[in-house]
Structure formats: C-alpha cells, structure tokens
Amino acid sequence: MPELVRNRDKVDKDKLYDFLLLDDVGYDINISLNIYEGEYFNQLPTMQVPFIKNVLKEGETLWTV
User: Fold this and answer.
1) pLDDT digits (tens, 9 = 90+) for 8-63
2) How far is 24 from 41, CA to CA, in rounded Å?
C-alpha cells in the first residue's frame, strides 16, 4: 500500500501501521506499507516500475488531506 506524503521524514510510521492493522483485523490480507514523496512517486511511471503501474491501474485513494 503506497502512501504519498509531502515529507517522508515527518511521517509517524508507527501510527500508520497501527491504523492499518486495526483495519486488518478479521480479514485475511497482508499489508505492506510503502511511503513515497509525491514528487518521487510521479517519476516512477516513466521508469516502468511494475508495482507502480499496477497501483495506477488498480489502486484506490483511501483518504486525502
């Protein structure tokens, strides 16, 4: 699950994992958190990164700020 942020250094990863794990209770899913700054993420499609291509094709926005 990619997270797009303005500044990776200011992300509280523990809080994000706590939130994601609460949502994971009772479901048989695995979550892998990937944190990207928006500018870097926007460059990845031009690099033909398969994961990012799939996220752009099938991914959904869960929340925005």
Assistant:
1) 787 777 887 777 777 555 667 667 777 888 888 888 889 988 888 888 898 877 77
2) 25
Angle at 16 between CA 13 and CA 18, to 5 degrees: 110
Q: Which amino acid is at 11?
A: V
CB 37 within 8 A of CB 4: yes
pTM over 0.70: no
Q: What is the DSSP string of the chain?
A: -EEEES-GGG--HHHHHHHHHHHHTTS------EEEEHHHHHHGGGGT-HHHHHHHHH-------
d(CA 7, CA 12): 11
Burial 3-13 (b: 16+ CB within 10 A, else e): bebeeeeeeee
